[in-house]
């Protein structure tokens, strides 16, 4: 249970080290919760996801998977609300490559806090909470309702999290008009904001072939199809896209398609030619690509490999909605004006990976991906992920300005 004031309290409530800002202590306590895949312990989150703002709701969307929502009701609750979304899970670590225990939240002499989730995205969760607490303490009241949402399983595709929850009647009841979710750090002075995402396609191609003795020139083997056609076609395309990215000044990673071969399966013995070999790819496709045409291309590669070559998807996101960043869009203009008033420079991009925003945008709600971290290397999913405490604290002040701005967007003509 999070305390009403600024003090720490998550996961056993360790006291603040001498002179440490209580928000930093709370952040470090939260980082120590092992919500790490493949078996995230979400138990403590359920206990602690509570700020006495107004009402809170916990919904088991799937067995063992809870979405928690804390609602700060607006003075005009019939207006569309603001969603502050964050996921509670983190990706695994290779501890032997870390300087410190990835779940100890060690802070070095420069104030860098090392932990899995320090950038992705436990920082944002605590920043939302602390900003809301400060606003509440100041006596400020939102006009539009503000929801803080804590979602499990983003890192494994969101099937038991946001993908399911956006179809739930309770989600509809939240009446969301605009959402904030995670972004990425920016190593320079500006902050990066994301108005869309690439579509993740996770594909496995099955290549059957003639088996036989490993000493012979058997015709039509699985390995020939796999290597000469499938792997070559996908990786040639990868080279072309890499070239396109490297030769265009204005492109970022989110503007091209990435292809990575991530798994290969097949074979039982050195001297037995296998009857099937499979290969899997992680594809990330920008919203500007014609997805039907792209799939036709994949079909064509498979056909060239052999009539019996088939494919299946483990992820195939098809929605290409992007959020308006036109100056006449009330949400965007409010968001960007608030940032400008804080002297922040914004860089607009397509998110290169995937977040829960894709499910929010797919149901027609505008969403901006934003994690207020500048002067910070991008270390999500990497060894030695860290965030500096000053950058973290600055982020709370950023939300302290952004939340009132967004919650005060005047009623639209179609709103009551
Ligand atoms: C495609 S599921 C999303 C998992 C993770 N956020 C990623 O981008 O890989
Ligand atoms: Zn994330
Ligand atoms: Zn992640």
UniProtKB/TrEMBL annotation:
Keyword terms: Cytoplasm, Hydrolase, Metal-binding, Zinc
- Region Disordered, annotated ranges: 1-23
Q: What is its EC number?
A: 3.5.1.14
The active site is formed by 89, 154
Give the binding site residues for Zn(2+) 2.
120, 155, 381
Which co-factors does it depend on?
Answer: Zn(2+)
Q: How is the cofactor bound?
A: Binds 2 Zn(2+) ions per subunit.
Q: Where in the cell is it found?
A: Cytoplasm
Q: Recorded GO terms, molecular function?
A: aminoacylase activity; metal ion binding
Please report the stretch or stretches of sequence annotated as the Peptidase M20 dimerisation domain: 195-307
User: Which domain of life does this protein belong to?
Assistant: Eukaryota
One of its GO biological process terms is: amino acid metabolic process
The positions annotated for binding Zn(2+) 1 are 87, 120, 182
Q: Looking at the UniProt record for this protein, which Gene Ontology cellular component terms does it annotate, in alphabetical order?
A: cytoplasm
Q: Which Gene3D superfamilies match?
A: 1.10.150.900, 3.30.70.360, Zn peptidases
Tell me the protein family, please. Answer: Belongs to the peptidase M20A family.
Name the UniProt record assigns to this protein: N-acyl-aliphatic-L-amino acid amidohydrolase
């Amino acid at each position: 249970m999070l305390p009403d004031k600024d003090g720490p309290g998550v996961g056993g409530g360790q006291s603040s080290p001498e002179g440490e800002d209580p928000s930093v202590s709370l952040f470090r306590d939260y980082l120590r919760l092992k919500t790490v895949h493949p078996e995230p312990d979400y138990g403590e989150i359920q206990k602690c996801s509570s700020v006495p703002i107004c009402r809170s709701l916990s919904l088991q969307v799937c067995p063992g998977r809870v979405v928690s929502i804390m609602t700060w009701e607006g003075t005009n609750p019939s207006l569309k609300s603001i969603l502050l979304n964050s996921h509670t899970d983190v990706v695994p670590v290779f501890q032997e490559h870390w300087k410190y225990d990835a779940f100890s939240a060690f802070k070095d002499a420069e104030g860098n806090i090392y932990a899995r989730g320090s950038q992705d995205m436990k920082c944002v969760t605590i920043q939302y909470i602390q900003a809301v607490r400060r606003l509440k303490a100041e006596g400020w009241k939102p006009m539009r309702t503000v929801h803080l949402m804590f979602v499990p399983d983003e890192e494994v595709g969101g099937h038991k999290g946001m993908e399911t929850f956006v179809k739930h009647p309770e989600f509809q009841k939240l009446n969301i008009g605009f959402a904030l979710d995670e972004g990425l750090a920016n190593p320079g002075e500006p902050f990066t904001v994301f108005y869309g995402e690439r579509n993740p396609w996770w594909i496995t191609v099955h290549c059957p072939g003639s088996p036989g003795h490993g000493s012979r020139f058997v015709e039509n083997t699985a390995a020939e199809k796999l290597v000469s056609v499938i792997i070559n076609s996908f990786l040639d395309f990868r080279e072309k896209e890499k070239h396109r990215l490297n030769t265009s000044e204005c492109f970022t990673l989110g503007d091209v398609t990435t292809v990575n071969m991530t798994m290969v399966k097949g074979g039982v013995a050195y001297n037995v030619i296998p009857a099937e070999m499979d290969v899997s790819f992680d594809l990330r496709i920008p919203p500007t690509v014609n997805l039907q045409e792209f799939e036709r291309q994949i079909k064509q590669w498979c056909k060239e490999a052999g009539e019996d070559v088939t494919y299946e998807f483990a992820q195939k996101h098809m929605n290409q909605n992007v959020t308006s960043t036109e100056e006449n869009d009330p949400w965007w203009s409010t968001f960007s004006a608030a940032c400008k008033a804080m002297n922040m420079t914004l860089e607009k991009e397509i998110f290169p990976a995937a977040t829960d925003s894709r499910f929010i945008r797919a149901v027609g709600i505008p969403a901006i991906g934003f994690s207020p971290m500048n002067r910070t290397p991008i270390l999500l999913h990497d060894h030695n992920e860290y965030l500096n405490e000053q950058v973290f604290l600055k982020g709370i002040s950023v939300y302290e300005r952004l939340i009132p701005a967004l919650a005060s967007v005047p009623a639209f003509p179609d709103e009551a």
